[in-house]
Amino acid sequence: MTTATGSLDEDVTIWLTPGHADRGRLIEDPYPLFDRLRDEAPVYKSQPGPWFVTRFPDVLQSLREPGFSRDASRAMNRHLGSASGDEPLSEDAAERLFETWMLYRDPPAHERLRRMMNKAFLPKSIERWSARAEEIALELLAPLRDEAEFDLLDRYAAQLPLRIICEMIGMPSDRAADLAAWSHTIVMLQEPGERTPEFDAQAKSSLVECFAYFRELVAEKRRHPGDDIISILLESEHAEANPATDREIVGSCILLNVAGQETTMHRISNGTLYLLDNPDQYRALRNDLSLMPNAIEEILRYSSVNALPRYATRDVRFGDHVIPEGDIVLPVLGAANRDPGYFDDPHNFDIRRPNARDHLTFGNGIHYCLGVHLARLEANTALTVLNRDAPELELVDDTPRWRDTFTARSLQRMPVRWAG
Ligand code: HEM
Fold it and tell me: CATH topology for 84-307+366-418?
């Protein structure tokens, strides 16, 4: 484990500055910085501006605080130079994508969007996908059995959530690669920091293409409804006083993929990495797959999204501090999940940890992950199939390469080979 060497302000500034020469050490291992923040300044106003909240109870409180808004759409759209008005789907409207996301809306708009989509994500709706998820995992695994070496992230962990969400949305599988590319661009749009004009131009054209595709798909589902999420949302035209607009349906499809794919694929690959790094636990799990549900919770605890931005819509008292209206607040889930006041020996990966499931990796409050049952099902299926139906794996490269992102804890690649 590397150690944080700068002052708190220096390290936080480096962490928030993409491209900083010293950022690599914090991307590789942000946990010493999270520990220092939690110990020395649990509610901390950083020099660049955002407040960092790092203790478990404070992170929980900040996720539930009605005075903290998740509405990031205005800031995002300013960045992309958006148009105003509520015109029909167009290039300008594509730039206003984030306004259609429940994730970035406050009540009452949030509640309306969430209610319309909720039906597809109830436990009984998700349970129906269990056999299909296993079928896909086995299909993905089959060709890998003959390969000497492969990227587990790209060939397996990424493909299962992608294929499931395509099927749930009602999207043909031959467009899955496009969906993955659009989602990746949108994920990168949400990273803090300055972006190049080239990136913005590429992001805009990617969003326009994505919107055009989904607009067409929505029109098709209106003509021929199916057993899919777009058709469920279209049903709201009959059931709701204020039904989802086409723009909201398109935005919701994109949100589902963005929220569901990268999060899940990286938990599957990070989880495999932690298991390979802990051979005793890896073997224990392979010998007794009933340990899997708790192992998944420990994987989620150990490798959450780092932080989820909010901003104060009024002055909010937080312990000894008052967070003024307009300030950005970062509840650091990655720090809460390793709070020693809550989890014993928190930096230790332990698939038998009794309270692993208490993690905050799915958030809390009104934005609590809508896809929580699907995420658990996908992670469970992917890791069960991999550990039940295939030989042991080993890492090709012992040094994991983490992606240079602030919000996520994600590997760039995960080259592996079959052991023995
Ligand atoms: C292991 C995988 C996943 C993780 C770690 C995860 C994590 C999260 C977190 C932390 C939030 C709350 C964000 C906030 O409060 O700012 C969230 C919200 C959300 N997630 Fe997930 N998620 C995962 C998988 C999924 C899947 C598979 C889907 C659906 C396909 C999904 C759909 C959503 C949606 C729609 C929201 C917004 C809910 C709202 O605003 O009310 N997630 N997720």
Answer: Cytochrome p450 (1.10.630)
